Amino acid sequence: MLAAIDITQDIDEKTSTVKDLPCEELVLYLETYNKPKYYLLIVVCIWILVGCSNSPSPLITPESGDFSRQFQIINQDNVSSLEEVLDLPAPIEANSVIGINFNPSANKLIAVYSPSGIARVWDVQSQKILREFTTNITSSRNVSFDSSGNYLVGSMYSEFKDDDFFNKEYFGGVGVWNAVIGDIALCINATCDATKGSEEREPVFALSSPIGFSIDPKGKWALIYGMRFIKYVNLSTEEASSITYDTQIGEDLKLIGNVAFDYQGKNIAIAYQEGGVVIQKFPFYNLDIFPTTLQESQSTNLHSPVPAFSFSPNDKWLARIYQNKVTVWNVEKRQDVLINESIPSANILSFDPSSNFLYVATSNEVAALSLQNGKKIKIYNTPEITYITVSADGRLIIWGDQGGNVHFLGDPRK
């Protein structure tokens, strides 16, 4: 983690040190050491003059509010000793948590539950429910938030069915909600009328129906994908583009398993069910235009799901769960693999905002992996976990369970 730097001393003595720091840690610096606001101007000026060590521009880390400020930023020294510091109870009707977004500066948390489709907004400092709104999300698939928490994307309705490869959940459509006011903003491949019966909806078919969705961290694009297509929508103009992918490997179809946005909104990564991983410039109009290949697909009849796939916040790392194995690539060095570890039943990934840790969840525990050396640091007991995220100020690990409870792990300030 970032070492303390006293920038009240001669700035010239510190420029070389600041230049060597990762960009996102310069932003975390002020909150870590509670410096006054004018220090931000000093750091930004140094940043402009001498640069910093990461090429991508960092996400701006929000200030910590009254609640999260009680806890230390998670780092190499305390990640093994976190404790449960808060438990928000489930709604009356017990539902699985399929989405969490926490705004640390406002002390507000949004939790989404399935199959009820309820979204609940909490003030975590007072532990009071501020409001609830109902979505028509019925799928067990985890929802996706943009980095601000203003928008959430979820499946409108779904069906499980066996196809030629494995049992999969197919979506009849995807909705985009304004999470601030609770209204639906856009429906993709579906009607927004939640009152329509299943017989009035479009049928859910294997190759023509969505199997996943995402929203870019900047909240500009929503994306849905099926095994042979990707469709993306500009949330400002509601203009849509769709690409159908028919390339074959030998006699086998190359089928999409998961798609992830990078944090700058300039690229997407595509993970195939045959094991291949490529990075594609975004937006795009053809999936074959000069992608960066991190791993080749195999010519095989074995098609496996890709339950989780994500870029790190600094866009340096790309993580995937595939065939019970967690793989982390160094995107800048292309095929350089930092982690390639077997974790049976792994199904959820979450990076911390500093991109120092990757948290990998199974159904009952979470493994903390270091992105400095690729080693497993800690195993947390998280019974019936369904969702995990890390607060944007890097102070709390937040996870939800099948019973609808939301748990907070942190290191209380001493």
Q: How do the strands and helices of this protein lay out in sequence?
A:
Elements: H1 11-19, H2 23-33, H3 38-50, E1 83-88, E2 96-103, E3 108-114, E4 118-123, E5 128-134, E6 144-145, E7 151-162, E8 167-178, E9 183-188, E10 212-215, E11 221-226, E12 229-234, E13 240-244, E14 248-249, E15 252-253, E16 256-261, E17 267-272, E18 277-281, E19 292-295, E20 308-311, E21 317-322, E22 325-330, E23 336-342, E24 348-351, E25 357-361, E26 365-370, E27 376-381, E28 385-390, E29 397-401, E30 406-410
Helix pairs in contact: 1-3, 2-3
Overview of this structure, please?
The longest helix is centred in the N-terminal third of the chain and has 13 residues, at 38-50. It contains 3 helices and 30 strands. Helix 1 (11-19) packs across helix 3 and helix 2 (23-33) packs antiparallel against helix 3 (38-50). Residues 1-37, 52-59 and 195-207 have low confidence and may be disordered. With 414 residues, it is mostly beta strands.
Name the features:
4-stranded antiparallel β-sheet; 42% strand; 414 residues; disordered N terminus; globular; mainly beta
Give the oligomer, counting copies of the same chain as homo and different chains as hetero.
single chain
Helix content: under 10%
Number of beta strands:
30
Shape: globular
Beta strand %: 35-45%
Q: How does the major sheet shape up?
A: 4 strands, antiparallel
Strand order of the largest sheet: 1-30-29-28
Round the Cα radius of gyration to an integer and report it: 21 Å
Mean pLDDT: 79
Give the number of helices.
Answer: 3
- Which structural class fits the helix and strand makeup? mainly beta
Distance between the termini: 18 Å
Q: Which residue ranges are poorly predicted, with pLDDT under 50 across at least 5 consecutive positions?
A: 1-37, 52-59, 195-207
